[in-house]
């Protein structure tokens, strides 16, 4: 399974209005405060993989676990059993018992992906040295577009779109590929700062 199947994205069909500088600053402050206070996250998710040549999006479901500073596990349960663990600069894959590892530290692009996956879950990607950033208001939250400035990285990812709720938590994450195919993840049943044993992140 391609690495990009891990990354998630959301298509926003609701009305949106550009934020003022003051509003954008307030959102950054809210999200950073929320992210800094986040030690763990557990959540269910539904993932939609959109490919232009397919009539319908590919849908899958599962659970996500995050533990600061950078442990992330995606446990897919439908329509197949598949798990992906980001740990110690490595990607550990378990495909129905068939296990494999990838060293992310040896690749600049994959290392950036690892960092951004963690940042996108927490929502704290407001690095103007790394991204051109646009802010939008929505009826029940905010939408922020992140465009990578690094040309090599932009060859893999055209943009991230992150949707925040009114509390500054991430509701949806979208990664758009240069082909305009994208992956959408919608989070639900989010639990924050509850105990997550190390066994959750065992290889």
Keywords:
203 residues, disordered N terminus
Concise synopsis of the structure shown:
It is built from three helices and twelve strands, in the order E-H-E-E-E-E-E-E-H-E-E-H-E-E-E.
Structure write-up:
Helix content is 17%, strand content 44%. It is an alpha+beta fold and 203 residues long. The chain has a 12-stranded antiparallel sheet with strand order 1-8-9-10-11-12-2-3-4-5-6-7. The longest helix is centred in the first third of the chain and has 16 residues, at 21-36. 31% of the residues are buried.
Blueprint (SSEs and pairs):
Elements: E1 17-18, H1 21-36, E2 40-50, E3 58-67, E4 71-78, E5 82-87, E6 90-95, E7 98-103, H2 108-122, E8 131-138, E9 141-148, H3 151-154, E10 159-164, E11 170-176, E12 182-192
Antiparallel strand pairs: 1-8, 2-3, 2-12, 3-4, 4-5, 5-6, 6-7, 8-9, 9-10, 10-11, 11-12
């Amino acid at each position: 399974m391609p690495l990009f199947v891990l990354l998630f994205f959301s298509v926003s069909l609701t009305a949106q209005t550009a934020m003022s500088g003051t509003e954008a600053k307030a959102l950054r402050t809210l999200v950073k405060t929320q992210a800094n206070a986040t030690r763990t996250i557990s959540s269910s998710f539904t993932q939609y993989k959109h490919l232009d040549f397919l009539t319908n999006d590919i849908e899958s479901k599962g659970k996500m676990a995050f533990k600061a500073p950078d442990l992330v596990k995606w446990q897919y349960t439908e329509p197949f059993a598949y798990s992906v663990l980001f740990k110690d600069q490595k990607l550990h894959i378990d495909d129905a018992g068939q296990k494999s590892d990838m060293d992310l530290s040896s690749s600049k692009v994959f290392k950036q992906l690892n960092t951004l996956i963690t940042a996108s879950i927490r929502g704290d990607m407001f690095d103007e040295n790394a991204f051109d950033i646009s802010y939008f208001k929505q009826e029940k939250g905010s939408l922020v577009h992140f465009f990578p400035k690094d040309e090599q990285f932009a060859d893999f990812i055209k943009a991230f779109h992150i949707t925040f709720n009114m509390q500054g938590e991430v509701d949806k994450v979208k990664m758009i590929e240069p082909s305009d195919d994208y992956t959408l993840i919608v989070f639900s049943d989010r639990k924050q700062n509850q105990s997550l044993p190390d066994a959750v992140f065992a290889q």
